[in-house]
Amino acid sequence: MIKKTTLNNGIRVITERIPYASSVSIGIWVANGSRHERRESNGVAHFIEHLLFKGTQRRSSLDIAREIDSVGGVLNAFTSREYVCYYAKVLDKFLPRAVDLLTDIFLHSTFDSEEIEKERRVVLQEINMMEDTPDDLIHDLFHQHFWKGHPLGMSILGDAESVTGLSRDAIIAYKERMYRADDVIVTAAGNVTHEKLTALLEEFLQGVEPGHGRSESTPPVYERRIELVEKDLEQIHVCLGLKGVQQSHPQRYDAFIMNAILGGSMSSRLFQEVREKSGLAYSVYSYIASHADAGSLVVYAGASPENSKELLEIMLREIGRFKNEPVPADQLEAAREQLKGNLLLSLESSDNRMSRLAKNEIYFGTPLPLSEIMEGFDRVTSESIQQLANEILDNSALTLVMLGRIGTPAFSNSDINV
C-alpha cells in the first residue's frame, strides 16, 4: 500500500509497505540536477553528492562508513540531469538509525576545506577515468552535442575547469539555494510503517527551508548535428540519436516497445543484425533518455574502423524500418511481454520500488498504479508505433557522434538519414 504525507515545511514523504520484506530502502531525493546548474559551476550538484559523505558535526567520514557497515547496510548516492538521490538499505529494525544517518549527512555536513580539496581530486580523477573509458565517454559526448547550447547538454560530472573553480562558498551557496523543501522527496519501500517514518522525518528534517530552489526550465530545441571526434583508439565508437519522448508523453509505452524491438535485448533487431549476423560489434544496444520536457532515442555500438560504415548503414536502416514498416505482430507481442516481465521482476527489489515512488512523484506528481502501466503496454499497436516513429524519427533532429581514429569518413552528411 502506498501512502503520502506532506510535512509542515513542504517535504513529501511517500512509502510503500511490503509486510513480508525484512529490509527497507529509503532515499532522500532532491529534484535538482545538472540541468539546473550554471555553466560556470557545472558539476556542483555531483560534487555536493560526494561531499555529504565526508563528515558532519557529529560524524567523521569514517564514522559514517562504520555505522552503515555495522548494520550490514548500504549507503550511497547518485546524480542525474534532473535529480540527486541519497539512499540507504537496511534491515527494517535499523530504519531509525538509517534515518538518523541519512538526515545527518543531508543537513549537517561541514564541508571541511581540507576534505573539499581531497574530494576535488577524486572527482577530477573520475572525470579522467571517463576520458579513458571510450564506451562511457561517447555517451557523454553524445548528450553534449544532442543538447548543445542547452543545460541538458552539460556533463553531470562537470569538467576539469568548472570543478577546479568551485569554491567552498559557491558549493555551500548552491546547496542552500537548491536543497529546499518543495524540491525534496523522501521515499521508502519495504517493511516500513508510514506513520512512524513520517514522525521521525518531521523531527529530523524540520530544518530544511521551505520553498523551491530551481527556476523554471525551458525545453531544448532539436537540431541536426554530425560530430566526428578523433581519438587514438582501436575501435570507432558510434552514438546515433533522434528525438525521443519526455517522461509524461502519452505514447511513452509505444516508445518503450519500439526501443525494446530496436536494441533492448539479445533478440532485438540491432543485436541480431550487427552482432549475430554480421559480427561487426561486441556491444550494440539502444536506449531511451527521457526528461521532464524532452527525450532522445539513442543507438550505440563500437566497431573496427574498416567496419564503421557498414555498422552505420545497419543502424540507419533498422531505425528507419519503424517509419516504413509495421512491426510484425509476433515481435510486438514478444516486446510487450518482455517489458511487462522486466517491470514485474524489478518490483521484487525494495530499491527499485523506492526509486519508482520518487520518479513517479517527480514526473507525474502521483503514484502510477501497476494496472495502469500494464494497460499502457497493452494499448500499443503496430499502427501506433509507426505513427510515433514518423513523428519523432526526424532527420532534422538527428545527431551522430563518432569517437576514434576516423580519418576521412567513408560517408557524407547526406548519407546520414533514417
Q: Which shape, going by the Cα principal axes? A: globular
Q: Give the amount of beta strand, in percent.
A: 15-25%
Put simply, the count of helices is 15
Summarize the main sheet: 6 strands, mixed
Radius of gyration from CA coordinates: 23 Å
What is the string of SSEs from the N terminus onward?
Answer: EEEHHEEHHHHHEHEEHHEEHHHHHE
Fraction of residues in helices?
A: 40-55%
Uncertain parts: none
> Kindly, what is the distance between the CA atoms of the first and last residues, rounded to a whole number of angstroms?
45 Å
Query: Average pLDDT across residues?
Result: 96
Total beta strand runs: 11
Biggest sheet strand line-up: 1-2-6-3-5-4
Structural class: alpha+beta
How do the strands and helices of this protein lay out in sequence?
Elements: E1 2-6, E2 12-17, E3 23-30, H1 44-51, H2 61-69, E4 74-79, E5 84-91, H3 95-108, H4 113-131, H5 134-146, H6 160-164, H7 168-178, E6 184-190, H8 194-204, E7 225-230, E8 236-243, H9 252-263, H10 269-277, E9 284-290, E10 295-303, H11 308-324, H12 329-346, H13 350-364, H14 370-378, H15 382-392, E11 399-404
Parallel strand pairs: 2-6, 7-11
Antiparallel strand pairs: 1-2, 3-5, 3-6, 4-5, 8-10, 8-11, 9-10
InterPro entries: MPP/UQCRC_Complex (IPR050361), Pept_M16_N (IPR011765), Pept_M16_Zn_BS (IPR001431), Peptidase_M16_C (IPR007863)
Domain Peptidase M16 N-terminal: 12-159
Domain Peptidase M16 C-terminal: 166-339
